[in-house]
Structures are given as C-alpha cells and as structure tokens.
Amino acid sequence: QVHLVESGGGSVQAGGSLRLSCTASGYTGSRHCMGWFRQAPGKEREGVARIDTGSGSTYYTDSVKGRFTISQDNAKNTMYLQMNSLKPEDAGMYYCVGAAEPRRWPACTMSVLASERSNWGQGTQVTVSS
What we know:
By secondary structure, the chain is mainly beta. The chain is about 5% helix and about 45% strand. The protein contains one helix and eleven strands. A hairpin with a 6-residue loop joins strand 4 and strand 5.
C-alpha cells in the first residue's frame, strides 16, 4: 500500500518562500508520475506541478511558472516543491499525489494524477499573508 506524507507547510508573508516535501513509501517501481495539487476554500482543486521521476520532465501551471520548482530525490523517495515569491493567491491546502501502480500511463500528466486510482497525501496547509 502506498503512503504519501507531506510536510513543510506554514504561514509566510507575501514574497516569502516555503519548501514542501512529500515522502513516499510502498511504491515498487522505479519510475513514477508525481505531483502537487492545491485547493483553497471555495475554489476548485488545481494541479500545480508534476514530475516524471524517470525522465525528470516537469510541468507547471502558468500561475506558478518561474516561482515554483518541483524536484525529486530518488534516494530518499522524496519529492519537493520549492515555492518562492509566494502570493496570497498561492494559499491553500497542498496535496502530494502519486500515480497508481502498476504503471498504465504512457505519459505523466496532470490528468493521470487526477485519476481516481492515484494516491493522495493528507495535505499540508500553506498560508500567505499580504
């Protein structure tokens, strides 16, 4: 059974930085599609960034490009989201998501991560004050 545990959320002022971590356990394969979603109160869930841990390819939603960086440390089974120049609109609950095994996806996309088969962490709260 796959478990994803997030950490690193907190409260910062606008312009500040946070680094989120997601440690995965239970995966057996070597290539995974992993990413981050967020949801603010009253808003729809939004895909923020994703990474193909095999190829290293990344994707960012437009609103975070140039400010957020997704990365992985395969030795630690940990994925990170470095968030710089935070804005109040970045606030919300951030969820780590990993595609299910066995791998059935030809390409790592946000749609793959949003599927019902994916694994989700419990979330970590990010608050940004103006």
